[in-house]
Amino acid sequence: MSLRLPVEAFREALFRPGGPQWPPADLARTGLQLALLAPGGATLFDSATAREAQPPLSLDRLAAALAPGETLTIHRGTRVVALLHGAEDASAPPS
């Protein structure tokens, strides 16, 4: 396995005048790309070009996955932080 990190950039930030800053201001911009190579060098998987890559899970995607009438409540401790409802069934006759 080969792992490449911007070690020199992290090292420079560590020894910058004023001391180290953690987390680095640009940590959110740090990207990760994974590639799996066969012994001959052929790419078996590359996350940059993977067609089956999934975007990060969001509350909107969770809500879209709920069936009509379903409700999902997310708690943090005793506090409700999200309340999601399945979309109304447009084909159902009004009650």
Distance linking N and C termini: 60 Å
Note the overall shape. Answer: flat
Helix proportion range: 10-25%
How many discrete domains? 2
Query: How is the quaternary structure best described?
Result: single chain
Cα Rg: 23 Å
The overall pLDDT average reads 83
Tell me the structural class: alpha+beta
Q: Output the helix-strand order.
A: HEEHEE
Any low-confidence stretches, pLDDT <50, length ≥5? none
Task: State the helix count.
Answer: 2
Strand order of the largest sheet: 1-2
Strand content: 15-25%
Number of strands: 4
Task: Summarize the biggest pleated sheet.
Answer: 2 strands, antiparallel
Provide a short characterization of the protein structure.
By secondary structure, this protein is α+β, with helices and mostly antiparallel strands.
Could you please describe the fold and organization of this structure?
By secondary structure, this protein is of the alpha+beta class. It folds into two domains: 7-46, no CATH class; 54-90, no CATH class. It contains two helices and four strands. The protein has helices at residues 7-14, 59-65; strands at residues 35-37, 43-46, 71-76, 79-85. The longest helix is centred in the first third of the chain and has 8 residues, at 7-14. The mean pLDDT is 83.
